[in-house]
Amino acid sequence: MSIRIENLEKYFAGFHALKNINLTFGQNQLTALLGPSGCGKTTLLRTIAGLEFADSGNIYFGDKKVTALSAAQRNVGFVFQHYALFPNMNVFDNIAFGLQVKPRRLRPEKEKIRQKVTALLALVELSHLAAAYPNQLSGGQRQRVALARSLAVEPQVLLLDEPFGALDAQVRKTLRRWLRDLHLELKVTSVFVTHDQEEALDVSDRIVVMNRGSIEQSDQPERIYHSPQTPFVTQFVGDVNVFHGHIDQGNLVVGEFAHRFNNTNQTQAIDNQSATAYIRPYELTLSRSAENALASGRIVHINAIGFIVRIEIESRQSEQPIEVILTKNDYLQQKYQVKDLVYLVPDKLNLFQQMNI
Ligand SMILES: Nc1ncnc2c1ncn2[C@@H]1O[C@H](COP(=O)(O)OP(=O)(O)OP(=O)(O)O)[C@@H](O)[C@H]1O
Q1: Which residue segment(s) compose the domain that 277 sits in?
Q2: What CATH number does residue 256 fall under?
Q3: Which residues form the ABC transporter domain (predicted)?
Q4: How far is the CA of 219 from the centre of ligand 1 (A)?
Q5: Same structural domain, 230 and 260
């Protein structure tokens, strides 16, 4: 079941929360809605669920228009950050709840419900805790019960709002891997909200980056990371160094440096106009020579503890310290040390130009 959203607009008492949203969520894909706090992720998710209604625009599940349908009529599964399990019901009964409360003519027989809940318990790897009560579970286990509970009614669409947001980093990491595997097995169109870029890059088939109620980019994770289409996406997803300059005959000029570029994400660079280059830490090469460099500076910090080496450089060509990532081999060969003067040569530029400056 694919989800299609057309020209969606949503206001909260004059505040424009969703601005002309057009999106398709592919059948059985796991899509992340990613963006900073307040950008409209939850509002969009709740509008897809039928818990919130748009002021204009349409939502389709497959070919069926669901814009005016209630949440119950849409048959969606929903998992919140803080999912209120029923404290007086054990895990088994919590999962069975959605089936038990169905009208009699739609309710499966008792034995069918038992089989279904047993299968779901196995799926979320909690069979041994069927008789436990929510206050006897860890946060991660509770979220797995919440997920099993939302799946019990066989939703056409699964919507998750920061499902692991309240858990600590290690548990989050385990659960998101587990969600990815589960999603492969279940084959249900799923959308989850997160403000954690690593989480989005790690588990999703597609990422929708939102900013101030609008969509900045909707793309595969590797394209979001390697070919960001807007300055916002470039800075929001992954670490990046920022250089302000201007274009002069195929060169990016920053202060006294002129870097001849032949590899940018943007094909046309307009002469004599301001330009901002965004460069990931691993897309910068350190050099002892000024040839084709974009900047120079002194090394102020070296972190060589891990598999890669992070080097921080203070430079007049950048407002913030520049971060460069090297392999341990490169670092050991060049024998870089704090206070060394180095030049920075980009391998690749993400270049954005402001017009008419
Ligand atoms: N019921 C409401 N009434 C008024 N304003 C609202 C309401 N719900 C959301 N908003 C506003 O709409 C904007 C988007 O909110 P939303 O919860 O969708 O953001 P979000 O991207 O999910 O943020 P977060 O990551 O902090 O949850 C915010 O500025 C919020 O204050």
Answers
A1: 239-353
A2: 2.40.50.100
A3: 3-237
A4: 23
A5: no
Show the tokens assigned to 128.
Answer: 């041994």
Residue 35 alpha carbon, nearest atom of ligand 1: 21
253 in the same domain as 197: no
pLDDT tens digits, one per residue of 71-86: 888 989 888 877 678 9
Q: Based on the domain organization, do 171 and 309 belong to the same domain?
A: no
Pocket of ligand 1 contains residue 37 by CB under 6 Å: yes
* Ligand 1 contacts CB of residue 46 (under 6 A): no
The ipTM of this complex is 0.95
Give the count of domains, the chain: 2
β-strands 15-25, 251-254: how paired? unpaired
Does ligand 1 come within 6 angstroms of the Cβ of 35? yes
**Exposure string for 281-313, b = 16+ CB within 10 A, e = fewer:** bbbbbbeeeeebbbbbbebeebeeeeeebbbbb
Q: Which among 78, 89, 29, 25 has a CA at the least distance from the CA of 51?
A: 78
| Residue 211 and residue 315 share a domain | no
Supply the pTM of this predicted model.
0.86
The answer, yes or no, to whether residue 333 has pLDDT greater than 50, is yes
Tokens representing 306? 């891990």
Hey, what are 231's tokens?
């300055």
43 lines ligand 1 (CB under 6 A): yes
pLDDT digits (tens, 9 = 90+) for 194-236: 988 988 998 999 999 999 999 999 999 999 998 899 999 999 9
Per-residue pLDDT at 357: 36
Query: Do residues 179 and 161 both lie within one domain?
Result: yes
